Every structure is written in C-alpha cells, then in structure tokens.
Amino acid sequence: MRNRRQEDDVTATSAHGVPVLVETRRRLAEMREEFRADGRAVALVPTMGALHDGHRALIRHARERADVVAVSIFLNPRQFLPGEDFDRYPRTLDTDMDACRAEGVDVVFAPQRAEVYPDEPWVTVNPGPMADVLEGERRPGHFDGVLLVVLKLFNIVRPDLAVFGEKDAQQLALIRRMVADLDVPVAIEAVPTVREADGLALSSRNVHLSPAERRSALSLVRALRAGLAEAGNGAAAVLKAGRAVLAEAAALDPPVRTDYLELVEPRTFRIAEADASGPAVLAVAATVGATRLIDNVPVVLGGAARS
Ligand code: PAF
C-alpha cells in the first residue's frame, strides 16, 4: 500500500511536512493558481524517480531558492530508445515520497503517461546540432524526448525556476539552449554532480551494478580525474591521460566498454579543438555489465583546473 497523500490541500499538508502527491494536471493547475495568487515563487525539480542524494541536492537547492518546491516524477518513455532500459529502470514511488518528505518538498507531481501524453504529439522539439554529438549521437532521438517532456513539464507546472544536475551536462546545456531559443519563461539553475566517497557519480542506474561492476565503474571517474590533472597542458594531454585509464579499464573483470571520452565546449557541446583554451567539459560514457554510465567534469584548458 502506498504511503501517500493524494491531491490534497497543499497549505494544510505542507504544514505537517507531508508533500502533496498530485497525479492530474488539472489539480496541479489549480494549485499553481493558488501559489500565483499568494505571490509564492515555485521551483521545479524534474526527475524520473528513483531519487538518490543527487536529487536531494537539487531539491535542497530549490528549497533555498523558492517558496514552493515541486518535484515531478515521470519516467518518460519518449527519451528511451527501443532496446534501452525503460523496463528495468527502477520505480520506487514510496521511497521517493519518503525522500521528498525528508527534504520538505511541497508538491510531488507524479502523472500517469496519459496525463502527459493524452495524444501522441505531432509537434515536437528538435534539439538541433547540439544533439549530433556524444549522447545525442549514440542515442538518436533521446534528446528530442527529453526536451519535449521538459517543455511540457514547464508548461504544466509553470515554475519560476527549474533545477537540473551537472551530471547530465549535455542535457543541461540543451535545456538552457531550448529555454533561450524558445523564450521559455523559466530560470534554469544547475547543481554540481554528487559523488560517493570513492568518486562514483550518483545515478539511479547504479543500483544495477554488482560489487565487481561497481569497482570497474570507478574507472570513469579515474579517467576524468587523470584528464583533469592534465588540463594545464591542453586538450591533447587531457584526452591522452583519460583514454589511457579507460584502455586499462577495458582489461578489467568485468571490463569497461568505453563509448567515448571527449572534451567539448560547455555551451555548444562542440568538440574542443586541439588548441582550445579556457572552460570545457570532459565527458565520458561507458558500459559495465549491462549498465551504461555517463559522467563528466568541468575543466579549464591551459589554465587552473577545478576538481
Ligand atoms: O534527468 C532526468 O532525470 C530526465 O532526463 C528529465 C530531465 C527528468 C526528463 O525526463
């Protein structure tokens, strides 16, 4: 039995620290009008559920920045390609509600698919050239699905600001670009990647890693840190150091199968030129066992690096 309060009055339940679970866009729109009438600023944290400490950092940021914190939990089928892990993606609404309660979330919007997609959309969002590289190249159509659902969530919730993680750096850059290009009236704020003590970036997909796979998966952050240490020596040195770590990781048991390790320009995600200097993103994607992982670090090429 789900432990939750449904479609309740936000003021009454928030006073008891219990987030209101809203499943319909109609009820959400009513609540939004109440917040607007009261002049309360609303922050949205869009998620696909399976909340972990990385999401909690996003929620805390939202809590600091707005009067009302709304978390959306929607496992968006349109951003998964055929054969990807939509079916095995963790679905944990009860524990997600516990996390939201602990973080003082006011509203959890957890719609069914038909609430978000009452009809198959004919008009969609084209992510443009930024989706031609890295994740967009490996997962064609993924960012079309991400931007479509994010834009729909913005239009349904109409937040004043929305918070995303730097862990999905290309997604974040694309959302910023969509908001700028389409004049979407929402401020986008970013929160740095949250890591385990040993450096593994938090991800909802980490639950699929066996202990041995988890050990191999640490090669991703090792590669990023090896690259970061070479930032002062330029792009080629960064890539050489990072790729050397991944070459060794290919021989681990279980092996790390690298998709890419690339340096990109942070706003456009264009591949950095060999003589690039200044801010860049060092991004990696690899599969360990059946689990595909991504990670990245900001670097400053030819200058001081931050870890
Ligand atoms: O980052 C995610 O969890 C998803 O891509 C998002 C932004 C919630 C859209 O489904």
From TrEMBL:
Binding site for ATP: 48-55, 165-168, 194, 202-205
Pathway of action: Cofactor biosynthesis; (R)-pantothenate biosynthesis; (R)-pantothenate from (R)-pantoate and beta-alanine: step 1/1
UniProtKB keywords: ATP-binding, Cytoplasm, Ligase, Nucleotide-binding, Pantothenate biosynthesis
Gene Ontology molecular function: pantoate-beta-alanine ligase activity
Keyword hit for Nucleotide-binding: yes
Binding annotation for beta-alanine: Q79
Reaction equation(s) it catalyzes: (R)-pantoate + beta-alanine + ATP = (R)-pantothenate + AMP + diphosphate + H(+)
Residue sites binding (R)-pantoate per the record: Q79, Q171
Compartments (UniProt record): Cytoplasm
Recorded family membership: Belongs to the pantothenate synthetase family.
Subunit structure as annotated in this protein's UniProt entry: Homodimer.
Function: Catalyzes the condensation of pantoate with beta-alanine in an ATP-dependent reaction via a pantoyl-adenylate intermediate.
Additional remark text: The reaction proceeds by a bi uni uni bi ping pong mechanism.
Protein name from the UniProt record: Pantothenate synthetase
Gene this chain is encoded by: panC
